Automatic annotation (TrEMBL):
It comes from the Eukaryota. It comes from Fusarium oxysporum NRRL 32931. The chain crosses the membrane at residues 219-239, 277-298, 342-365, 385-418. This is Uncharacterized protein. Keywords: Membrane, Transmembrane, Transmembrane helix. PANTHER family: DUF6536 DOMAIN-CONTAINING PROTEIN (PTHR35395).
Length: 544
């Protein structure tokens, strides 16, 4: 029965409707209708159903121009339907590639590739000094080349450096007399031009501290300020998407039965969420960008926690240094900068969250069907996907996927907090990633019993013997007592399995202190080999 003939007959009719390729089922067709129409259509209290077959927007867009010429009267637009028959048909899919987005992606890859090449050429191939990639590289470098600034400051911690910086900046004067206490450091002179910290003997206060204290408080605050802001924003948009009910509905992921992000045309606002494919792709991927920034903060926090653990374990047993280019007993650094039991779960969590984000907010496209008539067709402005004039492009969202993403994100960001409640292994100074504190802990003993009889050769990671290259660095001056044997001792310590704790220093070290303190009551903390019989720090004993 044509629309023209409906004018001459009763408007109560039995209508058979066939689903278009874009329709998944009768339910998807109903979900696409205006909400007022859905309520009328789903009302089964009467003997017949009534709905507007073509909306006013469709008429305004001249979609039914041909029907109007055939005698269609808008006054007969409302039909009373007795029943509906739907037939599911196979969808016809096709692939579209927007050249603009492809070009942008290629340019981004080229920029990243050029940065990698520059870093390799500038800092690795043509580098004149050691490349410090891991904490093990830093320890190795500082053992071989002790920092004169931190001499006799083996108990220095990152919090001491922070307090000293505050004094330099004049932030507070309440640290006057800080040197007289059992912790902290003072400036050698009052002039801020001097950046040397005063050597100071301090009593050891043995305590089992938690991972939370191994990182500066500002690291925790900055990281969780970002993570919690993302979580709160996600909960807010989930609240808006569910109409304030916090009840998920629809389908998981991209589906025609889910809702679309649109602006109310009655408010006089232009619809920014339908039409241009490139713009909609950028809008739909904003959550991906936010998630990437969040993961960088999360991964950085996890890496710092692992570094604190690995550093603290150096006081529990003799362990090899983990470096970029192993020598002797040293071992190669992790491929992911984290052990697989840490790195793989982090990567899997990132992949899962990005997949959930793509399922939560996505670009929906349909070529043909009724979507354009409901939202205001045609909605394919700046069409670069090869869609027809009746194609439909919009940003859709899945409340079920949003809910799952929020739960997974909340669980993932709680992991560092749970790890922070664990106690650090061993009993060692806390340095974080502060290079000054790390340098203070790496003043090894020249009197070490490490074997240097075979300094003429060394083995690489493949077990082959190669000629040992002994570097003499410019700042190792003769008046500081550094000679080839001392450098050989330092180099061999760095290549061996080491442990941090109480070590016996050379006689000259104690001779310099005998006029100031009782050398029998003073010890030194640093890295040593197994032949040095490195001991544990003793409670309330003085170390310098």
């Amino acid at each position: 029965m044509s629309i023209a003939r409906l004018r001459q007959h009763s408007i109560t009719a039995n209508v058979t409707i066939r689903a278009k390729p874009a329709w998944d089922s009768t339910k998807s067709w109903l979900r696409a209708l205006p909400r007022s129409t859905q309520r009328t259509w789903n009302d089964t209290s009467g003997s017949t159903w009534s709905f507007s077959f073509w909306g006013p927007k469709s008429l305004e867009k001249n979609i039914l121009k041909a029907q109007m010429r055939g005698g269609f009267d808008v006054s007969y637009n409302t039909l009373n339907v007795s029943y509906c028959l739907a037939e599911k048909e196979e969808q016809q899919c096709k692939i579209g590639v927007p050249n603009l987005l492809l070009l942008v992606a290629l340019l981004c890859v080229l920029v990243k590739l050029s940065q990698c090449i520059f870093a390799m050429v500038r800092y690795v191939l043509n580098g004149t000094g050691d490349v410090l990639v891991t904490p093990g590289d830093a320890i190795k470098s500082l053992i071989c080349r002790p920092d004169p600034t931190t001499t006799r400051m083996c108990t220095l911690e990152m919090r001491d450096v922070q307090f000293t910086r505050d004094r330099l900046l004049g932030a507070s004067r309440r640290y006057k007399g800080y040197r007289r206490e059992a912790y902290g450091v003072e400036m050698l002179h009052g002039d801020v031009e001097h950046e040397f910290l005063a050597p100071q003997a301090r009593q050891w206060k043995a305590q089992r501290r938690r991972f939370f204290r191994a990182l500066p408080i500002n690291v925790w605050l900055k990281t969780y300020a970002i993570l919690l802001a993302v979580l709160i924003a996600a909960i807010y948009y989930f609240y808006q998407a569910t109409g304030g009910k916090f009840q998920a509905s629809g389908a998981f992921g991209s589906s025609g039965i889910n809702n679309f992000v649109t602006l109310d045309g009655s408010l006089g606002l232009s619809n920014q969420f339908t039409g241009d494919f490139v713009r909609l792709v950028l809008l739909a991927n904003i959550p991906q960008l936010i998630l990437s920034i969040s993961y960088l903060q999360f991964n950085s926090l996890i890496t710092k926690i692992f570094m604190a653990k690995e550093w603290a374990q150096m006081s529990t047993e003799y362990r090899p240094l983990r470096v970029r280019e192993p020598q002797g007993d040293q071992v190669l650094t992790y491929r992911l900068q984290l052990p697989y039991r840490w790195g793989v779960p982090c990567i899997l969590a990132s992949v899962l969250l990005h997949w959930l984000a793509s399922s939560s907010c996505y670009v929906f496209m349909a070529d043909g069907g009724f979507y354009g008539s409901i939202m205001g067709s045609p909605t394919t402005s700046a069409n670069s996907m090869g869609l027809s004039g009746f194609g439909f492009i919009a940003v859709g969202y899945s409340t079920i996927a949003i809910m799952v993403a929020i739960v997974v994100f909340a669980v993932v960001i709680s992991v560092p907090l749970l790890l922070s409640m664990r106690r650090l292994p061993g009993d060692m100074v806390i340095v974080g990633s502060n290079s000054l504190a790390i340098a203070a802990a790496c003043h090894a003993s020249k009197a070490s019993k490490v074997d240097i009889s075979d300094c003429g050769s060394k083995t690489d990671t493949s077990g082959r013997e190669t000629g040992m290259e002994l570097k003499v660095y410019p700042h190792h001056r003769e008046e500081e007592g550094d000679d080839r044997r001392t450098l050989s001792v330092y180099a061999r310590i760095a290549e061996s399995k080491v442990k941090w704790g109480v070590v016996r220093m050379e006689d000259s070290f104690y001779n310099e202190l005998k006029d100031e303190v009782d050398v029998n009551e003073i010890g030194h903390l640093s890295f040593g080999v197994q032949d040095d019989a490195v001991g544990k720090p003793e409670f309330q004993k003085w170390y310098i």
